[in-house]
Amino acid sequence: MDQRFAGMVKSVLQNANVIVMVADARYPQRCVSRAFLESVSSKDKRVILCLNKADLIPKHIGAGWRRCLHDTYQLPVVCISARDRLGTRHLRDAVARQFGLLGLDGRKGDECGLGLVGLPNAGKSTVANLLKGSRSASTSPKPGHTVGVQSLRVKGLGYMLYDTPGVVETLMREELPLADQLLLCAFNPMTELATEEMPDAATRLAARFEELDPAAFEAWRLDFFPWLRAGQENKASYEGPSSISLLFAQKLGKLQKGGVLDERAGASLFLQHHLSGKIPVYEHPPSTFS
Ligand SMILES: Nc1nc2c(ncn2[C@@H]2O[C@H](COP(=O)(O)OP(=O)(O)O)[C@@H](O)[C@H]2O)c(=O)[nH]1
Ligand SMILES: [Mg+2]
Questions:
Q1: DSSP conformation class of 284
Q2: Residue nearest to atom 13 of ligand 1 (CA)
Q3: 213-225: per-residue pLDDT in tens?
Q4: Is the C-beta atom of 26 inside 6 A of ligand 1?
Q5: Residues contacting residue 131 through CB under 8 Å, at least 6 positions apart
Q6: pLDDT for 67-82, tens place per residue?
Q7: Which domains are assigned to the chain?
Q8: Distance from residue 24's CA to the centre of ligand 1 (Å)
């Protein structure tokens, strides 16, 4: 891991005793790295892994990941949906237990801090709101929204909350290949990519879905593009990841002048579809753990 990055993360977390690493429950292995976890943990800092967006996966998958990641990293792991406020108690209990293990108790006037780290769009600000119980950390559906360090003192919480600043989020994001940045919605392709870059991005994302779970990706395609079942000759067909943009263009009737399917428009629609969480393809925990 790059020195600049490690230094930046350290300075953000210097006042945090407990660190909650927020990861997307759909693709936990792609968000969590051993090097990162080692760089944030120390003798006097405890890390909790929080798998968020559990509403987008089946319960047994979340439970499988919880066991697997706990065994791999020897850390407390909670699986929650910050948006739907599910698993709140587990998260609060885990936080209280870790502060307790450090011998810290906000009620005794100890200076306690809780740091939220994770990629852009993992749901850190939503988790902050959940912990606070009201809305004052601003959240946004646009990746990369939190710009400066946000520290929040919350009445009755007994600790300060620190949200990851945008600059650290950006560095975390840049450690990943573009396909994973797209998969994890770690940036907004609608605003950050040029139209001509959209088809390539769509192909990379579709290729990731193929790798993660080809059967689930196919089931979604057959459902979303019903003509693929019947194999209609006059319509776009699926010929691998690079054909996904044309399928979207076909479905939405996006044509260029001359009646050819508009691949760029189709690509942009596929990327948006994924940003809104509508493609039910997720990473499966290793079978030995399930
Ligand atoms: N489906 C789902 N979406 C969530 C959940 N938590 C956050 N989000 C959405 O993810 C996006 C990013 O959330 P935000 O808290 O701003 O993420 P941050 O960039 O890590 O601070 C927003 O559109 C949230 O509504 C969740 O539990 N489930
Ligand atoms: Mg945020």
A1: P
A2: 123
A3: 999 999 999 999 9
A4: no
A5: 91, 92, 95, 114, 154, 157, 161
A6: 999 999 999 999 999 9
A7: 3-176 (3.40.50.300), 188-275 (no CATH)
A8: 9
